[in-house]
Amino acid sequence: MSAFAFEGPVEIIGHRGFSARAPENTLSAIDAAIAAGADAVEFDMHTAGDGNPVLFHDAMLSRTTNGVGPIRRRTLEQLKKLDAGSWFDAEFAGERVPALKEALEHIGDRIPRIYAEIKGFREVEDLDRMVRFTAEAGQKERTVFIAMNWTLLDRMRSQDPGIKIGFVVDDAETIEDAFARATGDENALIDFRGDHLVNDPSLVERARAAGIEVAVWCIDDVGQATQALDMGVRRITTNEVEALVTWKRSL
């Protein structure tokens, strides 16, 4: 059985939680994705100034909090004083930036898979902590570490060769390298930006022939999801979790 096996016709992955329903990369967004029936959640990670991994997308604080400046200049305690919800809706005023440890414990066994994307770090030891904290939380088997910068995944593998990883393909020029890295690695997948597969559907067949697992991001439309599934893509990352879960149940 594949290390990435799941039940049902398709795995619906909540992008940054349920980011169309709640502020991205927060516990509320994770809860909303799970409540909507997502099969997995994806979130982004940066490292605070004291070495604590946190759920956050941008290098700067201003878009999704009432703070300013680089996230790496704030300790976890300082980040916890920021409002990470009001930018989305007043309903979420007071929402906090979650620490990775906190999020993993909060998720528990409520969902089968977690996709943790590394967006930023201060030093390589920060990556080691991400791996260690995930194992200590009992979430190693559920978690797939993904990144656009694949040298980060190399470092994480050096700490634990058994972790699952995903090569996020944003630039078409990296596709061949992704195939080279993932071929023969039963604990690795390729996570394609949606338009790459639309432009070249043969990539899915090629991956299948090589025994490589494939995911796609971000698909928010049922028509596009159907097209992806028809190509053979069975892992779909979406902002519109509820709509795609409803679609999945109709298959």
Tell me the domain tally.
Answer: 1
Mean pLDDT: 97
Helix content: 25-40%
CATH architecture: Alpha-Beta Barrel
CATH top level label: Alpha Beta
Main sheet record = 9 strands, mixed
CATH superfamily assignment?
Phosphatidylinositol (PI) phosphodiesterase
One letter per element, helices H and strands E, the order comes to EHEEHHEHEHEHEHHEHEH
Shape: globular
Question: Rounded to an integer, what's the Rg over CA atoms?
Answer: 17 Å
Which secondary-structure class do the elements indicate? alpha/beta
**Termini Cα gap:** 23 Å
Q: Indicate the low-confidence ranges by residue numbers.
A: none
CATH topology group: TIM Barrel
Work out the helix count: 10
**Strand tally:** 9
Strand content: 15-25%
Describe this structure in words.
- There is one protein chain.
- With 251 residues, the chain is an alpha/beta fold.
- It has one domain: Alpha-Beta Barrel (TIM Barrel).
- It is built from ten helices and nine strands.
Which labels suit this protein?
about 250 residues; alpha/beta; TIM Barrel; 10 helices; globular
Task: Summarize the helices and strands and which ones pair or pack.
Blueprint: E1 11-15, H1 27-36, E2 40-47, E3 53-55, H2 76-79, H3 100-107, E4 113-118, H4 124-136, E5 143-147, H5 150-159, E6 164-169, H6 175-182, E7 188-193, H7 194-199, H8 202-210, E8 213-217, H9 222-231, E9 235-238, H10 241-249
Parallel strand pairs: 1-2, 1-9, 2-4, 4-5, 5-6, 6-7, 7-8
Antiparallel strand pairs: 2-3
Helix pairs in contact: 4-5
